[in-house]
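Re: [help] complex structure
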Amino acid sequence: MKASQFFVSTLKEAPADAEVVSHRLMTRAGLIKKLGAGIYTYMPMGLRVIRKVEAIVREEMNRAGAVECTMPVVQPAELWQETGRFEKMGPELLRIQDRHGRDFIVQPTSEEVVTDIARQELRSYKQLPKNFYQIQTKFRDERRPRFGLMRGREFIMKDAYSFDRDPAGAQASYQAMAQAYRRIFDRFGLKYRAVAADSGAIGGDLSEEFQVIAATGEDAIVYCPDSDYAANMEKAEAAAPAGPRPAPAQARTLTPTPGKATCADVAALLGVPLSSTVKSLVLATDVLNDAGEPAGVQVWLLLLRGDHDMNEIKVSKVPGLDAGFRFATVPEIEEHFGAKPGYLGPLDLKKPVKIVADREVAVMADWICGANQVDHHITGVNWGRDLPEPRAVADLRNVVAGDRSPDGRGELAIERGIEVGHVFYLGTKYSKAMGATFLNEDGKPAFFEMGCYGIGVTRLPAAAIEQNHDERGIIWPDAIAPFTVVLCPIGMDRSETVKAAAEQLHMDLLAAGVDVLLDDRGERPGAMFADWELIGVPHRVVLSERGLKEGQVEYQHRRDTAATKVAAADILSFVKEKLAA
Amino acid sequence: MKASQFFVSTLKEAPADAEVVSHRLMTRAGLIKKLGAGIYTYMPMGLRVIRKVEAIVREEMNRAGAVECTMPVVQPAELWQETGRFEKMGPELLRIQDRHGRDFIVQPTSEEVVTDIARQELRSYKQLPKNFYQIQTKFRDERRPRFGLMRGREFIMKDAYSFDRDPAGAQASYQAMAQAYRRIFDRFGLKYRAVAADSGAIGGDLSEEFQVIAATGEDAIVYCPDSDYAANMEKAEAAAPAGPRPAPAQARTLTPTPGKATCADVAALLGVPLSSTVKSLVLATDVLNDAGEPAGVQVWLLLLRGDHDMNEIKVSKVPGLDAGFRFATVPEIEEHFGAKPGYLGPLDLKKPVKIVADREVAVMADWICGANQVDHHITGVNWGRDLPEPRAVADLRNVVAGDRSPDGRGELAIERGIEVGHVFYLGTKYSKAMGATFLNEDGKPAFFEMGCYGIGVTRLPAAAIEQNHDERGIIWPDAIAPFTVVLCPIGMDRSETVKAAAEQLHMDLLAAGVDVLLDDRGERPGAMFADWELIGVPHRVVLSERGLKEGQVEYQHRRDTAATKVAAADILSFVKEKLAA
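Output below.
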């Protein structure tokens, strides 16, 4: 490809709304162009990256036995009403009425459509397993679209859906996809982790996120450097506390803590570690009568160590809280604790509440908590002496770096990641909602066991850039670079020698199957180099008249700090070797 | 590819709403699946066809120097308000409001977005010409979607837009596209015609439709078998009448024609050819006063030969009718003619009307027209004697088969076609509306000269089927078949010989780059053959134990009436030769 036949457009300045480096660089390098909030044109340079991502995804999906189709972007509401998602999904679901006033949506995913296809097409267990996928435009009307392609409204997703006759089959389909995803992410040439994720109501461990590692990532990834353990923060289990609870050593003491309404302030005031304090979180659930009508409120007190954070997903699995909960209101808190938030604790309650202690809190002795009196805490609190042993103990907290790994093989570390893929065992959630059955071996109808598997095709380039860039611009891995090699001839318009050599090398590389671009725009060397460093083409060859006279050209990888002189006669094999490396 | 790893799904019966053969066959062959009115999932078998169409289009667009990008499906209304299309386009334009109540549309085409890109990106004449294209989902909320992919609401279109500095450049860009389209349609392997089309307000001949020939086509295509002349019916010019007008031979006679309100009935009653009658079409235009307010109605009488049909596009170019017209109302007709429709004519008017005669009518003598009296016509009417020579004479009619070709090189023929491509010179229509300029060589801003170029990617397979099918199913051209070759082993599950031979041939064909499918489903031969004849794979090889024992396999092209025995040892080269043919 010659630059004159392509479209190269770079900007010195990033737009004011570009907060993250990938958004800034994708805009400056001319990969994308904003049309509206969260809506971008994929410009020629960016589309090349997206097409390479798609090609890798497609090859590996096909290799894994999935079959490609394309489901409509605009979908009738009826199917979404069958699963209840038409009502349940918030304004994120873009709703339309057609000329006849009928309801439609723009697909954010396609579980409903693919399940509808399955219930019509997959009539017998003999047709199973089957996995349909598409690489297709999606839309989610994000409340606050930002970060360019990282959190856009319109985007391209690869979504796959597997159909199996039983859970064992579904697990095999799931594992095949998880393996395909590893191959896909390996091929992208990015540092990533596959981390266990919460699988919601389905339970089990059949949910993994594929996170591209980047310091700027929105997600916290928990992993053990000494083992294979990796999970996202929602899912990562806090290992059971190591030792037994120490014996009480202090007397229970009402201690004035004027104006100190946080554990950190109290610890500082009293000169004790934050980990000797206990924080009180007050939740509420609705109590229903036998007729299922609201008949009152149950208040809950969650106790966590002062230096720990609550993990909502874990809390939502505590029996009694698993049907939904909310934070208690101030009047509800005052009614039960006789005090305002900031000084709450499990002692001297005005009305009984259900107490759930985090596992770490259950093994603490001589701890400090609010006194249920303004400006007062109690120190030297001990289970079994000052209050009954906790009846409910659970893992309620986010893990922290240095926690023991749940597999017992080291300590946990935490890094940041960008979620770009997700594999998920769905069970019969959609097949039951939509009455999607097949005839089993015994001739009886059974619900499909399903899985769903997504890759954010347009998000991936953004994640790749967050991971791979420097002050000059993007640094693409070979596999998804818009061009693998760029040829920069200096003074091509003035020198027949340079022109001939550049065009010959261009032809030779094309013939060798290399995705090469010849920059024949006639830019000055400085501007030309800056463009390609910004765009991030990994391999660059510079041809100049002076160099060619000495029989030399210059090669530089985008990560190299200096160019390497290579004999002009050897450059073809030199580049091919670099690409094979 | 093995069938067991793919998805083959055929139906005995077509859905009740499938009116045309392509819709019936695409549904029965499992190429598409209806989700809603005019909205289809492209099933795996159909998607393969679409991908092949896309690949051919993409290769030839790139070869012609166009650059691919992808514009958003969901587009902000603002740009569409700049050109006025947001208001002007009817309910065909699918409108959406997002969560913030802002207006969006689902793209039916992308002139606005690409012009917006150009006015930002193409700042200098040095960057021109430039041609951006996309292959992308479109939506048009058709009032009556039907015929499957032929007139769907959601569809895939390749749309390209060229930007040039002046009309000469735009014409060169247009010609490059017109040539690329010929290469594309040649490669599809379909019978087609590129026909001149009306270019609306722009004028000139820079608009061509690419019509796939099919007896079931909606469009009438006019062509001259003895020359290159081809145009669509709207555009095709009726050559000027051959000879001078004969001298009057009959006297003007009021003739009773009770109940005969059509030319055909009158001709039959009087025993004369239909071509000796003249039909009266009454139109109306609004007359505006100096302030531009409606100040009355001008009534027009169009005279066409009884056997000719009015051509609305031609009528809309008659001076005075070119700002818009409508058919006159019955009260307006009675006010000017003193008679009801059915017996109208240019003689004995109650109030003056503007008369426009078709060129053929202007050379008629002794003609018959309505008498402006119920149940009466006048025979023997002659220009210059019974009424003044016509002041306005124009080509107002559709051509008919047998008309002289406008290039004077033979007679016109008419066949049916399906419009699948369109190239169009746009001029500055969009660049002026959106203030899209670049700096010309003299440093002054100038409006882009634009062209637009569409191919209906998902319509093409339907058109291909309308042209190529028989009672057993589809017959694909090699270039766009879902698979080029199908291997049908008989009793593969029982015979190791058949299995080994089939798998070897499958591997050999794959290695030769042939898009081959091995049907390993274990279907009975009858059902297997019926499936592939329905799906329309052009080349079939049948392997049976009996044949293999004799060292033979059977080859049959989808159009062949019988199979050819081929030595098993030669089948690979035999098939390769067939594909090269």
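The radius of gyration of chain A is 30 Å.
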